[in-house]
Amino acid sequence: MWANPHCWLKFEVKDANGKVVNCVAETTNSADMTEKGWSKRTFKAGDQVTVTLEPVKSGQPVGRVQFVVLANGQTLGLNYVER
């Protein structure tokens, strides 16, 4: 979701048992994303990517995106600073 004040990345992963889990990860605002090389066309449904995120403490499938590696090997980062 390309929106303000923050963009969101929704994706599916398989857990240790092979069950598909729906995840949601927050990014920064669209202007910052654009400066870092992202666009609203960076991802298409079905793209296989590797997402590294800062998970929430509760263990739910939610977090903040740190970086994403696209299928072509390109890495897109957000460079969050620890709060």
Model description:
- By secondary structure, the protein is mainly beta.
- The protein has one helix and five strands.
- Strands 1, 2, 3, 4 and 5 form a five-stranded mixed beta sheet that branches.
- A hairpin with a 5-residue loop joins strand 4 and strand 5.
- It is globular.
- The model has no long low-confidence stretch (mean pLDDT 88).
What would you say about this model in short?
This protein is mainly β and 83 residues long. 7% of the residues lie in helices and 37% in strands. β4 and β5 form a beta hairpin.
Structure classification: mainly beta
Radius of gyration: 13 Å
Mean pLDDT: 88
Largest sheet composition: 5 strands, mixed
**Low-confidence parts:** none
The arrangement of helices and strands along the chain is: EEHEEE
Binned strand content: 35-45%
Give the SSE layout:
Elements: E1 8-14, E2 20-26, H1 30-35, E3 50-55, E4 62-69, E5 75-77
Parallel strand pairs: 2-4
Antiparallel strand pairs: 1-2, 3-4, 4-5
Comma- or semicolon-separated keywords:
about 80 residues, mainly beta, five-stranded mixed β-sheet, about 5% helix
